[in-house]
């Protein structure tokens, strides 16, 4: 028998993208037992808190209904008034309890898995109508777990009910000797506390079900090694595609950079390997700005554009390398190069004056050394 491919085993933790996709499809951790227990406990507490108010309202309604007006037998308007009063009183009596039950029905589900609204979860899934899939779900491990939980609920709740009956046996027997009005109130109180105790027993089921649901959901979202690799490729892109994108980005950046070269005041070269184009406007810039830079073919292109637009080109290898390595395109040159660049600009100005016949002899090329901390000999 051939060995199973380990890449097909779901051994990897789900990626953030997998978790986000699951949430979009409405697949989040949920516990039906937590929802049921939360609603039942809320109902039991509401009976204890609002029980006297509800009971007194019911007594008022009963007294009102039994104080029957004979005219209601033939006058429908009076009967309608009776009905409106009864509906209003009953709604007012149970509205606090219903409000808390509504709140519990919202809070209990989102307490595990958080709030999540998904239209995809509301869409019909025809795969669930497949009889074979239904049989598979019926005999799956999840079905066995649900069956075990069902029997567990019967045993836990049944045991709690037996404990209540045994513990309150004397309370129930004592009601026989109480006046009717007192016995009714006593029985209501005993029933409310009994209901709360039985509902509290469902907490034991929740303590088992919640960790199981968290583990089951995490296990369902696990991925194979191949799925992780495919997702990484789809997210990050294939290496050849990424390389092509970077190449296109560099080409676009170079085109934008080359379009600024005609505005340069001077181009400083290495003379062949490096080229940097600088611009300086004394009234608008605190320091010279680097418009373009490049090596080899890009440097050649910068020199070609400079020659085409008659921009002065000065060969100063050390200065060209320092500006190239220590200045970003569009940024100002380092403070340590101010003097060297200022001498180059002054040199360009003097050459221009000499060509116009306003200087007796051509200027000498500046030889100001580059500071050691800014030198690059590569």
From TrEMBL:
Role summary: Required for formation of the rod structure in the basal body of the flagellar apparatus. Together with FliI and FliH, may constitute the export apparatus of flagellin.
Subcellular location(s) per record: Cell membrane
This protein's record includes keyword Protein transport: yes
Membrane topology, as annotated: Multi-pass membrane protein
Gene3D superfamilies recorded: 6.10.250.2080, secretion proteins EscU
Chain spans, region Disordered: 1-30, 358-378
Keywords: Bacterial flagellum biogenesis, Bacterial flagellum protein export, Cell membrane, Cell projection, Cilium, Flagellum, Membrane, Protein transport, Transmembrane, Transmembrane helix, Transport
UniProt protein name: Flagellar biosynthetic protein FlhB
Gene: flhB
TM annotation in the entry: 39-59, 97-118, 150-170, 190-212
Keyword tRNA-binding set for record: no
Family stated for the protein in its record: Belongs to the type III secretion exporter family.
UniProt biased composition (Basic and acidic residues): 7-30
């Amino acid at each position: 028998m051939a060995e199973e491919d380990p890449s097909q085993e779901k051994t990897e933790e789900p990626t953030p993208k997998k978790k986000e996709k699951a949430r979009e499809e409405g697949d989040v951790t949920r516990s039906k037992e937590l929802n049921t227990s939360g609603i039942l406990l809320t109902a039991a507490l509401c009976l204890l808190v609002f029980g006297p108010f509800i009971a007194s309202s019911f007594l008022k309604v009963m007294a009102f209904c039994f104080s029957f007006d004979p005219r209601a037998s033939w006058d429908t308007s009076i009967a309608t008034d009776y009905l409106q009063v009864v509906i209003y009183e009953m709604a007012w009596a149970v509205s606090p309890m219903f409000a808390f039950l509504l709140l519990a029905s919202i809070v209990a589900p989102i307490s595990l898995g958080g709030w999540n609204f998904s239209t995809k979860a509301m869409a019909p899934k025809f795969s669930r109508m497949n009889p074979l899939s239904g049989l598979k779900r019926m005999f799956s491990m999840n079905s066995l777990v649900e069956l075990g939980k069902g029997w567990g609920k019967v045993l836990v709740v049944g045991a709690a009910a037996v404990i209540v009956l045994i513990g309150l046996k004397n309370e129930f027997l004592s009601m026989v000797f109480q006046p009717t009005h007192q016995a009714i109130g006593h029985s209501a109180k005993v029933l409310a506390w009994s209901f709360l105790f039985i509902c509290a027993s469902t907490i034991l089921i929740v303590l088992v079900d919640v960790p199981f649901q968290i583990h089951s959901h995490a296990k369902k979202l696990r991925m194979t090694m191949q799925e992780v690799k495919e997702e990484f490729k789809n997210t990050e892109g294939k290496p050849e595609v990424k390389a092509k994108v970077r190449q296109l980005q560099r080409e676009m950046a170079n085109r934008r950079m080359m379009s600024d070269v005609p505005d340069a005041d001077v181009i400083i070269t290495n003379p062949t390997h490096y080229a940097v184009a600088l611009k300086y406007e004394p009234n608008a810039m605190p320091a010279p700005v680097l418009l373009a830079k490049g090596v080899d073919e890009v440097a050649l292109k910068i020199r070609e554009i400079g020659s085409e637009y008659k921009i002065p080109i000065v060969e100063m290898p050390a200065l060209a390398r320092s500006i190239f390595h220590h200045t970003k395109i569009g940024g100002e040159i380092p403070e340590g190069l101010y003097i060297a660049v200022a001498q180059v600009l002054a040199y360009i100005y003097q050459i221009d004056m000499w060509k116009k016949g306003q200087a007796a002899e051509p200027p000498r090329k500046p030889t100001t050394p580059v500071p050691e901390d800014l030198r690059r000999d590569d």
